[in-house]
Amino acid sequence: MAEVVLENVNKSYGNVMACRDINLTVKDREFMVLVGPSGCGKSTSLRMIAGLEDLTSGQIRIDGKVVNDVQPKDRDIAMVFQSYALYPHMSVYENMAFSLKLRKFPKDEVKRRVNDAANLLSINSFLDRKPKELSGGECQRVAVGRAIVRNPKVFLFDEPLSNLDAKLRVAMRNELKKIHAQLQATIVYVTHDQLEAMTMGDRIAVMKDGIIHQIADPITIYEKPVNKFVASFVGTPAMNFMEGSLIEKKGGIYFDEEHFQVRLDESSFERMKPYIGKEVIMGVRPEDITDKLYAANVTPDNVFTATVELMEPLGSHYYLYCTTGKSPFIANVDTQTQVEVNQDIEFSINMEKVHIFEHDEAGNNNRLN
Ligand SMILES: Nc1ncnc2c1ncn2[C@@H]1O[C@H](COP(=O)(O)OP(=O)(O)OP(=O)(O)O)[C@@H](O)[C@H]1O
Ligand SMILES: [Mg+2]
Fold it and tell me: Mean pLDDT over residues 308-315, rounded?
């Protein structure tokens, strides 16, 4: 059992609040990703779990034990940094064996563990090389190997792939997932890359300004973001946001953008009733706006017209950059769509997939539906 629990954790540096009231339970063997824009407090959270930073207040427990006052070396965690931090004068083997030797492991045991990790990571052919004789991806593997040999209760990763090129990053992403499955370890993984978070995490904690806004599995984060920030952070191209108001019409509730009106899904009527007459923001992902000609379930109440300003052909589909005259948005349409720049086109919105957020001066913009 290696559960990691952060309870009411706060961290301030002078008057900078790096982490505010963090409550997070990473379950045993879970792959938890902390994701958010630069400066949101991801590394600080991870460093507090590692014991490299003191808490200003709150409690951290690893495996049921309060570790606030436990030294990093006694926490049974291993951390992998973005910089790899390999010892340049040591061979790959020595780099991986170092922490075990420090802990006075028997020679046979050191050898066995280094070889096992090297096999798992496919780095056994260059155990004699020095770090400068390795590529970035290979260095990354050695850094991971150095953590694996320790057989820790918890792995902590801080942006371990950000120094790699795009293709290698995808390959390492998959490899780390496979390794996680084999090691059955608890992992807390920090990244600012939403795609990395979505593809790797069992669950994701989305942070901004030192606050965790949502903790959920990737699909829930994508389909039911709790507020406009989470909605905009996850997904490429980002979710479209249109300002308007809710009105009651023909026994239903409609979103009125001024240039068009669309009827909200029946299932949300009860929850939306209190907001009739109020300003709201409708969020729609590009893939939920399609060419009316090829859309399923077209009704008079889910279509609108817009002007195409730019077309981005991606081979399998187009991104159409459009405007209603008031709201700019991106639609993801099939290549069979016949349209040109400056032409009008009729779209259909999948109303089951729209997100309604409060129009809030304070910027919270919580999800309403
Ligand atoms: N030692 C420090 N002294 C003062 N302020 C700090 C210190 N470390 C971090 N901060 C501040 O705390 C906030 C959170 O920093 P943190 O490093 O946790 O961000 P992050 O989410 O990891 O960002 P990035 O994606 O850029 O790595 C930032 O505003 C940062 O400037
Ligand atoms: Mg960081």
Answer: 95
